[in-house]
Amino acid sequence: MADRFFNNLMPDLSQTVAEDGDSLMNLLAMPYSSLSHHLKRSALDLKETVVIETWGFSGQLVHDFTLYSGTLGTAFLLFRAYQVTANANDLSLCLQILKACDAASASSRDVTFICGRAGVCALGAAAAKRSGDQELLNYYLAQFHQIKLSNDIPNELLYGRVGYLWACLFLNKYVGAETLSSTTIRQVTEEIIKEGRSMAKNGSSPLMFEWYGQRYWGAAHGLAGIMHVLMDVQLKPDEAEDVKGTLKYMINNRFPSGNYPASEEDMRRDFLVHWCHGAPGIALTLVKAAQVFGEREFLEAGAAAAEVVWNRGLLKKVGICHGISGNAYVFLSLYRATGKSEYLHRAKAFASFLLDRGHKLLSKGEMHGGDSPYSLFEGVGGMAYLFLDMVDPSQARFPGYEL
After folding, report:
1. DSSP 3-state percent helix, strand, coil across the chain (nearest 5)
2. Is residue 359 part of an annotated ligand binding site?
3. Is 41 within 8 Å of 47 (Cβ atoms)?
4. Residue 115 assigned ligand-binding role
5. Number of other CB atoms surrounding residue 89 within 10 Å
6. What is the pTM of this model?
7. Backbone φ and ψ of 375, nearest 5°
8. What is the overall mean pLDDT for the chain?
9. Which Gene Ontology molecular function entries are recorded, alphabetically (predicted)?
10. Phi and psi for 401 in degrees, rounded to 5?
11. Structure letter (DSSP) for residue 212
């Protein structure tokens, strides 16, 4: 199991001191304002590399339009860079890339934010709104309204109803309330709850869902991701109780280590510590539940999951989905929820590890850069996004997951 992650030898906050010749320890001991300057500079350099590799060298042809592994992830990174630096060139290039993604995704039957047409239209509308282009905003909104959900669509985040619902909520945040009507959001929510209750009959959890025959627990395809998005909508009291009950079922059936199984069918293998499967994605959902429901049990469980991430989450992969970049967001979410400096230190530690050693480990093959090495969810695009988010931790949000 240890071949999946680096041993985390970095000290906790109270033990951190600068050491001659140890560049990582010196980063950890650095005042946050100084470190954030280094992270921002590295993020902007990485952003340029990502743009060149995914857009500049491709002849501006889009083969994979998705946020997850494709060119939309580059547009999303540029949108975040624009939010952080207010560089109008980033927004302009974001809109150019979106135009190509729009053409490439026009016939797609996938409807979600991370892997489908909704991501292109929702981000397109948000970027058009920021640029003040009303005609373009109207175009992307009209395109979004043409997206239809099939009757046999699953309910998970990457390809299902919840991924479409998240796109609706993103639009309402970045374009304006009721851009997607509460009626539409209500209809989708009711269908998700209905299917979750139906599959959970005779089970211990109030809600359950399947994707390709497995009842997953994680953020990408399972319970954690579905509960996370449901907590962003207005739930009826009985629906809120079902969400809470589902999360408590997961807490009560976690591994003794504090980690979580990948699925109902895989309740014995305690080895995945990823956003997509395992403690990191579930921790983000539990911290959100503590804020939404005000119950300490969720915050305590989120903190316990974060211990797993600290001990086993320094993965030999770089990305957001299953790598160090994504796992750092666990500590950022707990820092926002609690204000405790120890969590900011741990996020700083994961980011500093990447800043200090990431490129060297990738070049030596000791850390995996993903099948799409410049993408947002698998590659260094995710590392750049994390570094931008570290500039102001109070505004950090896991891309495509935390609103």
Report:
1. 60, 0, 40
2. no
3. no
4. no
5. 11
6. 0.97
7. -80, 170
8. 96
9. metal ion binding
10. -135, -55
11. T
